[in-house]
Amino acid sequence: MKDFSEELKKLPTEPGVYIMRDSSDTIMYVGKAINLRNRVRSYFRKNIGRGPAIDNMVEQIDRFEFIVTNSELEALVLENNLIKEHSPKYNTLLKDDKTYPYIKVTVSEAYPRILFSRTMKRDKSRYFGPYSSAQAVKDTIELLNRIFRLRTCSRKLPEDIGLERPCLNYHIGQCMGPCQEYISREEYAKKVSGALDFLSGNYGPIIRDLEKKMRELSDEMKFEEAAKYRDLAESVKSVAQKQKISGGSGIDRDIIGMKREGEDIVLQVFFVRDGRLMGREHYHMTDTLMQTEGEVTGEFIKQFYSGTPFIPREIMVRNAPEDSEVISGWLSAKSGHKVSLVVPLIGTKEKLLEMSEENAEIILHNDSEKIKREEARTLGAVREIESVLGMDSLVRMEAFDISNTNGFENVASMVVFENGRPKRSDYRKFKIRSVEGPNDYACMKEALTRRFTHGMEEAERIRDKGEDAGIVSFSHLPDLLLMDGGRGQVGIALEVMDELGLDIPVCGMVKDDRHRTRGLYFNNIELPIDIHSEGFKLITRIQDEAHRFAIEYHKSLRAKKQTRSLLDDIPGVGPSRKKALMKRFQSISEIASADAETLSSLPEIPPDVAENIVAFFKDFREKEQAKVPQSYSQRI
Question: For residue 174, how many other CB atoms are within 10 A of its CB?
Fold first, then answer.
């Protein structure tokens, strides 16, 4: 272990964040402190019972740095941001990156809709959730639309009223037809109010109304229609039955139960909204430093609520972290309302927490083997690739592929894997601009040049203007570039790296006679790799994903080309005018034969556009005639 006695003397006593780095300058650990000097010095004291994990980390520290903040709260926010950005090896890291489904009611619209949403935005809509099951959300939305017959279309109302015919939902009795003003805005608002009552848990009036209609129809001997209302009433009762677990008062709260076994930890979160248990979700964490349960709870809360769109007013835990007041203040400032961390001791709240812990224990025992398998196929596979290539700290890998049909519509795909998992938000696709015909090497060179040039420009903007790095992706350069081919593809990539002045390792995948990967081409050497290893399987998954992404993009471009018509090339003819022309005339040839006066008789076609159409087809006929051989035209 290095001697840091002089550096430790220079540490300030203010609050802040400290960062531990190893000999390769990789961040190993990020922590916060009320007093930086006291906290950092504690790592380098001997025989204080820190545990083997911390001792191992301390042995690897090559240097440390610190950032002073004005308060412990600022240190907490900064620490959390750095952990999420760098994923240090020795921090307790939240493994899951899940989004939660919500039910969104667009109450700001004149004729609101009920929608499925993965995000909660400040857009004046009302959100209900989060829910743990996306299918449950979809089933609930379908049920509400069946009961209240609200619109599901994206038409802009009332501006678009009467412009188009009503859709299929109206004709099958699943919509009230607001697009044609078949229902008044006031009556529609009553339907929406009923849906909002339902989502808020007020099921009684809806059930009574449905049963009343069922009885009336039954008395009138309309048994088939009565059966529909009976089934709707049963569906509502089924949904209501699932919501009966209550946390006491009508407050929004999250209940966090935790169970641990060695370094493996499972946290079960119950989502209670308006006093009702709306759903649950579990999360896996890895504790490499053997922290106390209060410390692990604090780490989870900071990482979890920094990314979730909704923060309840109350968070219930078994063991509160030491900095509960700081965390509570941070959550309150982030959400705009007071957030309390509560440790229940008796009553309903304690029973709910106990139930959450029991669920966490079941998941921990049932999922332990699954967790280990997932670790082997992701991080374990990355470590195997590191070993084969002789690399360290491999996190982000990027792979590229080219797709075309005999040189038609050349495209390239870029896929990104981080820590052995696909990062689809960073996937990119390129439509090749400079290459005509089948030339994969030239296409690859253009794609790589555009990708890394764009990345360097983004990085420069961030340095100059301080843009938030979280909203860009090209500036994050890969630790390893994977090429689908062998020596040739690697050579193209290295040429681009040299031209741009970048130092990024490039690895090629060498194929055998049956076009199967047999090894890796790295630093001018073909390296063998066990085709049964997790590392090989990960490379194959990356390879297949790049291929799939490129082919999908190529197919989409081909499909667009195939659905185009001559009308798309005429100035002034957009989708609505194209539709009007095809409705009035039976074919393209009829449109081509029409004169300007006939064309402009359509309300949608002004005289200047009619002249454009006539001129376009005149020019088109002349060009087509010029293509006919002279001898052929003479015979005609």
Answer: 16
Architecture of domain 253-368: 2-Layer Sandwich (3.30)
State the Cα angle at 591 between 585 and 596, rounded to 5°: 115
The CATH number of 396-560, from 3.90.420.10, 3.30.420.340, 3.40.605.10, 3.40.50.720, is: 3.30.420.340
> Sign (positive/negative) of CA torsion 153, 158, 164, 170?
positive
Poorest-confidence range of 113-117, 217-221, 435-439, 609-613?
435-439
What's the number of CA atoms in the CB half-sphere (13 Å) around residue 145?
A: 23
| pLDDT tens, residue by residue, 87-143 | 888 887 665 555 667 889 999 999 999 999 887 777 788 888 666 567 767 877 888
Q: Over the range 217-242, which residues count as b (16 or more CB within 10 Å of their CB) and which as e?
A: beeeeeeeebebbbebbebbeebbee
Residue 142: name the closest of 270, 274, 246, 231 by CA.
231
Query: Is the pTM above the cut of 0.70?
Result: no
Whether 396-560 and 253-368 are alike in CATH topology: the answer is yes
Structure-derived torsion over alpha carbons of residues 509, 534, 90, 20, reported in degrees to the nearest 10: -20
Kindly compute the dihedral angle of the four CA atoms of residues 313, 317, 321, 326, in this order, to the nearest 10 degrees.
0
Strand partners of residue 75: none
Predicted local confidence at residue 560, as pLDDT: 62
Q: At what angle do helices 72-86 and 324-335 cross, to 10 degrees?
A: 80
CATH topology of domain 566-635: DNA polymerase; domain 1 (1.10.150)
Q: Is the predicted pLDDT of residue 633 greater than 50, yes or no? A: no
Element (H, E) at 445: helix 440-465
Q: Give 583-591 contacts, CB < 8 A, sequence gap 24+.
A: 591/567, 591/617
For residue 584, report the phi and psi dihedrals to the nearest 5 degrees: -80, -40
Question: What is the secondary structure of 12-41 as a DSSP string?
Answer: -SS-EEEEEE-TT--EEEEEEESSHHHHHH
Query: Which superfamily is assigned to 5-91 in CATH?
Result: GIY-YIG endonuclease (3.40.1440.10)
The ranges assigned to domains in the chain are 5-91, 102-241, 253-368, 396-560, 566-635
> What is the residue-averaged pLDDT of the chain?
83
Strand partners, 416: 398
Q: Name which residue leads in pLDDT, 633 or 376.
A: 376
Give the span between the Cα atoms of 217 and 334, in whole angstroms.
Answer: 53
SS3 call for 342: strand
Spatial distance between the Cα atoms of 419 and 510, rounded to a whole number of angstroms: 23
